[in-house]
Structure formats: C-alpha cells, structure tokens
Design brief:
The complex is a heterodimer of chains A (243) and B (823).
Chain A (H helix, E strand, L loop, with lengths): L7 E5 L2 E5 L5 E3 L4 E4 L6 H7 L8 H16 L3 E4 L9 H4 L2 H13 L1 E5 L14 E3 L1 E4 L2 E4 L10 E3 L4 E7 L2 E10 L3 E3 L10 E2 L3 H4 L7 E5 L4 E5 L16 E2 L2
Parallel strand pairs in A: 1-17, 4-5, 5-6, 6-7, 9-10, 10-13, 11-14
Antiparallel strand pairs in A: 1-2, 2-3, 3-4, 8-9, 11-12, 12-13, 12-15, 15-16
Chain B lengths: L3 H10 L5 H11 L4 E4 L6 H15 L11 E4 L3 H18 L5 E3 L6 H9 L4 E4 L1 H8 L4 H5 L4 E4 L9 H16 L4 E6 L6 H7 L11 E4 L7 E4 L17 H9 L3 E5 L3 H14 L6 E4 L5 H12 L5 E4 L12 E7 L5 H8 L11 E5 L3 H15 L13 H14 L2 E2 H9 L9 H13 L13 E3 L9 E4 L3 H9 L8 E6 L11 E7 H5 L6 E4 L2 E9 L2 E6 L19 H11 L10 H13 L8 E8 L2 E6 L5 H17 L4 E6 L4 E5 L8 H4 L7 H9 L1 H14 L20 H11 L4 H12 L4 H11 L3 E5 L8 H11 L4 H19 L3
Parallel strand pairs in B: 1-6, 1-7, 2-4, 2-5, 3-4, 5-6, 8-13, 9-11, 9-12, 10-11, 12-13, 17-21, 22-26
Antiparallel strand pairs in B: 14-16, 15-16, 17-18, 19-20, 20-21, 22-23, 23-25, 24-25
Helix pairs in contact in B: 2-3, 6-8, 10-11, 13-14, 14-20, 15-17, 15-18, 15-25, 25-27, 29-30
The chains are: A alpha/beta (243), B alpha/beta (823).
C-alpha cells in the first residue's frame, strides 16, 4: 500500500490506516471510511437555548464528508458516535441535509456507533446501529477505554494540538495515535478540541504517541507532543509510523 | 448673571467666573444644548455643572421629591468618582440641598436598586450603566424629570463603538425626557462639528447642531525634543540611548508622567529607569494589564504627591487631575497631534502657566515625527478623525436592550435610532436586518423561527409590528453581556515561591493575553509588572510564575495600545522629509541620513510615493514609503505579495512599520510597472480573498459576534466558569462566510475592518492619492531610508540569545555601512 504524499499512514495493531487531511481515517484494505464526532445539528441545539449560531453546520459537515467520500469511494462508512448532537437532532435535519445524507448512505453501507450524545441514532437513516464494531485487528467504539485491547479506533475526546514557533502558535485538530490505538479528531463543523497534553488523552497512551495535526493541504506528524514542539522536525512527505 | 449665592462663593474663593462658564449658564437659560471645547485646566467640569447647580438651588422646596435632574456620563468610572468628590466642595460651601451619587459596576447592588426608585439629583455614571438603566422597565419613571445630560471627555467617545452605544442611549432619553438639554465637554478637537451633531437629536431630514462655546486657550506649552548630535538609533522603540536624559528630566521636576505607547515599552522603560535610579526616587508603573488593586495603589500614591514619576500607557491619557504633575515625558512616536496635546495637558492644570513636555524619539523616523508633532501643536493644528458610521453590532445589542425595557414598535424604534447622529444614515433594510438578527439570528434559512428571542405581537388596531422579549431569562442574559468593550482572552498571572507545586496558591500580579502565554514553554522568562518572571506552567485559567533575574528575559508583545500614526501627522512628516530647507532643525545624524538618501536615491516630492528596488544578499527588495501606519502597510503588504506571486516574482516575505513597507522576493522586481502594481483595483477580489483567512479579520468578527450577542460572554448562572466566551468564533466565521456571506454580522465585520485592525479605508485613500505619482528608483544597493525597515526584518527573524545578538549586530553594521557609503 502506497501513501499519497498529502496523507500519513499509521499501522495500528497490524492494520494500515491512512490519516486523511480532512480528519477522517481511511482503511484501504476494507474500503472503510471513518468519521468521529459529527455532532449534526449542534447549531440548532444551541438555538433551542436562544443562541443563534449559523444554521449551516450540518450542511458544512456533510459537504466535507461528501468531498472525502468522492475521493475515496468507500464501500462502508463508520461514524464513531456523537454523530447527532442531541436526541432530537435528527428530526431537525433540513431538507437539503437529508438529501446530502441520503446520497452518502446510497453509496456506502453506514455503521452508526452509539455515542453519549446519541445513544439511539435514528433507525430511519438506514445502516446499522452498533455499540462497537470489530473487524480484522481493529475495534471501533465511541469512547476509548483506559485498558483497551490492541487496535482500538475511537473518538469522543476531540483531540487538538498546538505548536509554538517564531513567537507564534498554531492550534489544530489532530489524530492522536500509536501502534496500538488511534483517536480521531472531531469532524463536525462546530466541534472544539481538547489538548492532547490533557491527562484524558495523554493518559491513554504510553510514553510515546504521536499527534497528527490537520493542515490546510496535508497532515503533519508531531512526535510526542510537548509544549513548544518543533515543526522543523516534521516529515516533508508521507511516512509510515510503526511502533 | 449668577445668583447671589454663587457670586459670593466665587468671590470668597478669590475667583471670577470665566466667560465660558457664564456662556454655559446663558445657553442653559435659553434651554439649548451646547458643546464646550476647552483645554485642560479651564474649569470645564464646573462649567458643565454650574447651570444644573443653579437650577437645583432655586427650585421650590416642595419640588424636591426624588427626581433625577442631571445625568453625567464619563468614559472612565474613576473619573466619575473623582468628579463626584469635586462637586461636593461647592455644594457644601454654598450649602446647597443637592444630592450627588455615582453608579458604576462597583456600586453595591442594594444602592443601585435604591437609585432606581429614589435617585439623587445628580447621578454620575458610564455609557454601559446608561445602557442598563434605559433597558430597565422602570426607566420611564426614573428619567421623566431629567433636565440635563453632561457628557465628559466627549472627544474620546463620540467616534467609537462606545460612542454608538451612548448615542443610542441618548436617543432613548430624548423619548423618555423630551426637551432635556445636553452639555458636551471636550478637549480641543480639529473639527467640533461631529461632536455638535452627536449632542443634538437628528431630524429625519437635514441635520441639527448643538451650540458651540470655545474657551480661550491657555499658555502655549513648552515642548523640548531630546536629541543627540552624536547618536540617533536607526530602529527600535525603546530609546535606551536617551534614558539618562529621561532620568535628568525626572530629576528636574516634582512629579513626571512618562508616557509610552505599549505595555511592553512600559515594562522595559520601567526596568531601564530603575537601573539608573541611583537616588532611589519613587518611580512607579501603570498599565492596563496590571491588577486593578496595584493600579489603584499607584494612583493613590500619585494623588498624595508621593511619587517622582509614573511610567504609563494610554491608561492615563484621560482621567483624574493630579495637581502635582509638572512634567510630561513622551517616549517614542507621538502618533498624533491631538494625542500629544492630551498627554501634555496632563501636566500643570493651571491654565495660564505653560505645560512642560519632553519628547524622546527612539529612532530616526521618530525624530521626524516628534518635530512634525511639535510644529503642529504649536501651530494649534490637530488631527481630524475619519467619521465612522454607527456599527450594526452595537445596534443589535441596543435592540435587544430595548426589548428588555418594554415591547416596542419597530417603526418607532427605527425613527428613534435614526435620531442618534451616528445612525442618522441607517437604512431601513439594515435596521430590519439587525432586528431579524436579534429575533432569530437573521439567517436566510429560517430554521430558528420557532426559538426566537423576540416575538412579534399580533397587530392591533393601534399597534402594528410590535415586538416583545420571548423569555425573562433573556433580560438577565442581556444585562450580563451589555457593553462594547471586548477583551482579548486573558490569563491570570500568579506569583508562586520557588519549589511549590504549580497551581498551589500564588498572588495575582495581573493578566496577560492568552496568545502570549501560549507561546511560552516552562522555563521561559519574561518581564511583567516590573519583575523578571519565570513561566512554570498553566493550570486552568492561570499561569504560574516565579521570580528570577534572567537578564535576557523577553518582554510580552501585547497587542493592546498600538494606535497608528494619524493621517494628519503622517502628512506633516512627509512634508518635512520633502523639504530639505527644514532639515536644519534636525540632529546632525538625521540630517546626514536624509542627505545621503537624497544623493543615493531620491527624496520624494510632496504627494509622491517613492518605490525603491535593490538586491541584497541573494534577495531582491522592493521598499515603499507611504507613511500610513503599520496596519495599513500590513494590509498593503498582503495584497502586494499576492500580486507579485501572480507576476511570478516569487515573493518571500514582507515587513511593515509605521512609515515603510519592505517586500523581498527571489526575482528582481525593478522591471515591473509600479503604477499597475499599486493600482487601487487590488482592493477588490484580492482583498476579499485575503480577508477570508486573515486572523485579524477573524478577531474583528469575534468582537462583532460578542457585541451583537451572537456569542454570549457570560451565561446566567455560569458567570464564574472562567471561560471567556461560550463558543469559538472562528468555527462560526468559517461556516457563516461559506454559507451566508451577506449576513448582517459579516457586513458589520467588514465595516469594522475598514477602519480598525486592517485600516483598509486609509489604504484606499493612499492608493488614490499616489495614482500616477509613483517615483521609482532602481538601486544597486540598500538606500538609507530603507535601513530601518530592513533592520526590523532581522529583528523579527532572529531569535534571542547571546550568539544571535552578535549576528544581529554584525548584520546591522554591514547594512548601515552599505547604505551610507558615499561612492
């Protein structure tokens, strides 16, 4: 399997995953595309509290999903939970959003993993609803476990990383992973991030893990995030990080 | 003209009422609103209150039921408190039965509540408190008897978002208390017309103006410029070379105010002065990031005359009179003539004695600027301001507040808003957009209609298009989010003893911008609150630091306090550069610098823009000198590099300072058509494309989003969560820009960017001005005028450290030698 230079590959428990610049993960062997924390209708959820964020977040998220799907042609799409921001979110989906979601569901089989925001993703969307999904060396679930079996692919924590250099700092959403597990960045347009240095994230890993920050046109690998990490050590091309 | 009691009081003091004070009494008797323009020390405040005191002293006893008679509004709450204290004296000495109270954010809740029911005769407050008062359901009862509104330091308010908020508040007062009079008090301004308009309710057609009274000017100030004939720095803003002069000037005065332009300069200057302070004179530090307690302490020591000098930023431009200050020292560029007058006026509050000031330029361009500013001040000329239109985000906040007060009729509110001068040109469509925004977000996609902050009442026979607040919680949310001052996200700085675990206790020294702290790693050192500190770590919303004595500590580069060089002063600096016959007043090194520039390249004539190109160290440079301030130059730099990219010049970077813009590229740019390169059409698509991703633009959007109420600063019940805002504005910006680029908030942001952080309006004026007046010079090496800008490049690029300092110095010497070589 060759990496395109704009992506990074990571081998988790023997399975090679491609970290897409959009924040989705691509599992080439099974043609599976994986998204975490879509948080559909977060905007309208705030509107219920009378804070009127622009009502286009679901649309923006779906358009980005469609863009990745067009590039990868997946046979299957896994949404790693918290796909809907609240239990009533699916009912609030607009016509255009329903159409976009329908088009995605028509081209690939959907697996909706349950999340804490959406313990019951709506059945009418099609696809399968699951607590977790196992295949090959991987297990897909929403919330990562402290002592998980090898090969866990999870979301929930919304990892983000910051690097500082030349008196400036950049903060981006990121993947966080090592040879045993991978955390995906949140994909939803209105989702924020939690620093990878936070014990909730760093505590999941051993001494060595890597952050993979989402750049404008590519993903940047940051070996073991420390504050003040040095971007000059970033690889210029796609690399294979193994163990 | 004055009642006997007042005549006697003036006589007992050995005073006579000044002509402008009597003029204000006269205008009051005629029932007219008036703008008083007077220099500091002119008895301005007393003039403003005299008519009210007279009216209150002669009112019949039975009319003394609690009615608010005079409302005083100041931009600073400290000033309101000080004025209250000063009013006590004449009231007590004349035995007047007049009550005076202040109302600020610090006023206890019980008193604020009581004030609404039993108000004093005279209430002193701020624009934000006025917004809260008129948004209260009891506002009609509170203000129905109001006779006079006094607006202090109006010049500092009228042309800002706070001024917009104030203007909207006044428009409401006109409805609650029709016929009340307004008195504006202002420092000398270039054009009083917009202030007179501000004071007067505007009719639907034409304009109305308040009367104007101008007080006789005081003695001309004595302004010295520190200059050395042996050494004038090429770049930098610290004026280290002149600190002995500054120390000597402090020595010659009782109390000196040492003004600098940024908080980081304040920290540095404070350090330098203490290094030289052999006599252990009490010298203090005052800037906006210090903890309030600490600032209050300095102010208290100051008013007791206990300090020899205070190093300060614009935080002390306005405010309380300190009688003891007899010298003002301004370090660095004055930036504007009006600002300089304001600062000089802080010394010596007696009108007939000249104020004494020392200007300390930190580099060659600043020498020019200081001279231009002094000439302007002595000639009595001041900078005009570009008038802003009322901001739509402020209007949104106001509409929300008016719904909190009571249900309103849309057309009536529109007409009321239009009577406020900044909103006199407001279109009905924009008003509707703002109303729609407050009601349901104002999106083309109407998916939020069922949630609504405002709901429309069914039309009745006499009431159409009535709106009311949808839920009482929204009134509370409004009160927590009122005001237009948006702070950068800040982090507390807490001082710990060495060896303690991070996060355990620690005294609060003040606050710093979050983005500065984010650039620090544990062990980094920086100067703050006059101490050298070591960053230990960040825990929740506080940064923990310990004391250290690292001589290489960095000074936080705050964003705050960076006002640009005024258009007016820029014009005068350009004129000075273009007039060799005026150079003789300049120090020798500066004259030499300009003469070699004249010989090596050219001195641009008035109205011309000089563009130089030259190679240096495998790069090709293009340097131009618009003198339009760093913000406008930065925007120009972004746009030029885009064009140069398209012209395949391979631009590599640019740097902007107040006077010049330098761009460097891999290819030689001398062959380009400069007229085309600087064509105004760059402000079209290129600007839009660049804005989309500009961080400054996103920050501008954040301010608008917060002021308009899209993002709440505080949520009821969660005031102490520590989070600054409840939602990241960048995420909203990206989605809104992609899906509804014409939304009212994006339009508000664009209007702000024109005058604010990006100074697009000024850039546009400049491009028009220099059209077909561009002078180009293709040089074989760097010109003298280009040196300061090029030095800033190396300063920005090279990190700190002993060895790197050497590289920097070597580089600097070579650059200057090249520029000044006469062969």
């Amino acid at each position: 399997m060759r990496c395109v230079w704009t992506d990074l590959c990571l081998t988790v428990n023997g399975e090679t995953l491609l970290l897409d610049k959009s924040g989705a993960a691509w599992w080439p062997r099974t043609r599976t595309l994986i998204f975490a924390d879509l948080h559909f209708e977060k905007g309208s959820s705030y509107a219920r509290g009378r804070q009127f964020l622009p009502p286009y977040d679901t649309r923006a998220t779906l358009l980005r999903m469609a863009e990745v799907a067009a590039r990868r042609s997946p046979a299957r799409i896994i949404a790693l939970g918290d796909s809907f921001h609240d239990p009533f979110a699916a009912e609030r989906l607009g016509t255009e959003e329903r159409t976009l979601l329908g088009a995605l569901a028509a081209r690939a089989q959907f697996i909706w993993i349950r999340g804490n925001h959406d313990p019951h993703p709506p059945a009418w969307l099609g696809g399968t609803v699951m607590e977790e999904w196992r295949e090959g060396g991987l297990v897909f679930r929403h919330e990562p476990r402290a002592k998980a079996e090898p090969g866990e692919i999870a979301g929930h924590l919304h990892p983000a990383a910051r690097i500082a250099k030349y008196g400036r700092s950049v903060r981006r959403r990121c993947f966080a992973g090592d040879a045993m597990r991978l955390l995906l960045p949140s994909f939803g347009a209105y989702t924020g991030g939690l620093d990878v240095g936070d014990p909730a994230i760093a505590g999941l890993f051993g001494a060595r893990f890597h952050a993979f920050m989402l750049g404008q046109d590519r993903v940047y690998a940051i070996p073991r995030m420390q504050s003040g990490g040095d971007p000059s050590r970033l690889p210029a091309r796609g690399i294979l990080v193994s163990g | 003209m004055l009642p006997q009691r007042f005549e006697d009081w003036f006589a007992a003091k050995g005073w006579t009422a000044r002509p402008h004070q009597l003029a204000l009494v006269q205008r009051a008797q005629e029932g007219q609103s008036v703008l008083l323009v007077a220099p500091t020390g002119g008895g301005k405040t007393l003039a403003g209150f005299l008519p009210s005191l007279i009216e209150l002293s002669v009112r019949p006893k039975r009319a003394r039921a609690s009615r608010l008679h005079t409302l005083y509004i100041s931009p600073l709450k400290a000033l309101a408190v000080d004025v209250a204290r000063n009013l006590e004296t004449p009231i007590a000495e004349m035995g007047l039965a007049v009550t005076v109270e202040t109302r600020t954010g610090d006023t206890p809740a019980a008193r604020r509540q009581r004030q609404r029911h039993v108000p004093p005769d005279i209430l002193l407050t701020t624009p934000e408190q006025l917004a809260l008062l008129i948004a209260h359901p009891r506002a009609p009862q509170l203000f129905e008897g109001l006779k006079t509104v006094v607006l202090d330091e109006l010049h500092a308010l009228y042309n800002s978002k706070r001024g917009d908020l104030l203007a909207l508040g006044l428009a409401r007062l006109s409805r609650l208390a029709p016929g009340h009079r307004r008195v504006g008090l202002s420092a000398t301004v270039a054009d009083p017309l917009p202030l007179r308009r501000f004071l007067s309710p505007q009719p639907m057609a034409g304009e109305a103006l308040a009367e104007l009274v101008i007080a006789k000017g005081g003695a001309k100030p004595r302004i010295a410029i520190s200059a050395s004939d042996s050494y004038v720095p090429w770049a930098g803003h610290l004026a280290r070379h002149a600190m002995l002069d500054v120390m000597a000037a402090i020595g010659e005065s009782k109390t000196a105010l040492v003004f600098v332009n940024t908080r980081s300069q304040a920290e540095r200057t404070f350090q330098e002065l203490w290094r030289l302070n052999e006599n252990n004179w009490p010298i203090a530090l005052h800037h906006g990031s210090l903890a309030p307690e600490q600032r209050r302490k300095v102010e208290a020591a100051m008013s007791k005359g206990g300090l020899r000098a205070v190093v300060c930023t614009s935080t002390l431009d306005l405010g309380i009179d300190w009688g003891a200050v007899d010298k003002v020292i301004c370090i660095g560029a004055p930036k504007g003539a009006a600002r300089l007058v304001q600062r000089i006026g802080r010394a010596n509050h007696r009108l007939d004695e000249p104020s004494a000031a020392l200007l300390v330029p930190a580099n060659r361009f600043e020498v020019l600027e200081c001279n231009a500013a002094r000439d302007a001040v002595l000639a009595g000329e001041l900078d005009g301001e570009r008038l802003k239109q009322g901001s739509l985000d402020v209007l949104c906040q106001h509409i929300w507040g008016m719904a909190v007060a009571a249900p309103f009729q849309a057309q009536a509110l529109f007409e009321e808003v239009r009577s406020a001068a900044p909103f006199a040109q407001l279109s009905h469509a924009d008003f509707e957009a703002a109303l729609g925004f407050v009601a349901t977000g104002g999106y083309a996609l109407k998916s939020y209609d069922r949630y609504a902050r405002l709901r429309q009442l069914p039309d009745g026979p006499s009431s159409k298009n009535m709106w009311r607040l949808a839920h009482p919680r929204l009134a509370q949310a409004y009160r927590l989010n009122v005001g237009v001052i948006v702070e950068e996200p800040m982090i507390d700085i807490r001082l710990q003893s060495r060896g303690k675990p991070i996060g355990a206790g620690g005294r609060r020294l003040g606050q710093l911008e979050e983005y500065f702290i984010e650039q620090l790693s544990a062990g980094d050192t920086f100067v703050f609150a006059g101490d050298v500190l070591r960053f230990e770590g960040l825990r929740e919303t506080a940064a923990y630091v310990t004391r250290t004595n690292d001589p290489e500590a960095q000074v936080p580069s705050y964003n705050g306090g960076k006002f640009p060089l005024s258009t007016f002063l820029a014009q005068r600096v350009r004129e000075m550069v273009s007039a060799p016959e005026r150079w003789h007043v300049l120090p020798e090194p500066v004259q030499e610098w300009l003469k070699i520039q004249e010989w090596r390249s050219v001195i641009p004539k008035p109205g011309q823009l000089l563009v130089e190109t030259f190679p240096r160290a495998n790069r090709h440079y293009l340097v131009c000198y618009p003198f339009e301030g760093r913000l406008a130059h930065q925007t120009l730099g972004m746009l030029l590099t885009r064009r140069l990219e398209r012209a395949r010049m391979k631009p590599l970077g640019f740097i902007a300072n107040e006077y010049a813009l330098a761009v460097w590229a891999a290819r030689d740019m001398s062959g380009l058509d400069m007229g085309k390169l600087f064509d105004e059409d760059m402000l079209g698509d290129d600007l839009d494309a660049w804005l989309a991703d500009s961080n400054l633009y996103k920050r501008t959007f954040r301010n608008c989003a917060i002021i308009s109420g899209l993002i709440e600063r505080k949520i009821p019940g969660k005031e102490k969560s520590g989070r600054q805002v409840t939602f990241s504005s960048d995420l909203i910006y990206d989605v809104l820009r992609a899906h509804e680029p014409d939304h009212v908030l994006l339009r508000a942001t664009y209007a702000d960017a024109g005058s604010g952080l990006l100074d697009i309006a000024r850039l546009s004026d400049m491009l028009t001005r220099v059209r077909s007046r561009i002078v180009t010079r293709k040089l074989d090496r760097v010109s003298p005028l280009a040196v300061p800008a090029l030095l800033e490049i190396s300063r920005e690029m090279v990190a700190r450290g002993e060895v790197e300092e050497d590289i920097l110095r070597d580089n600097e010497d070579a650059l200057i030698a090249d520029a000044m070589r006469v062969d």
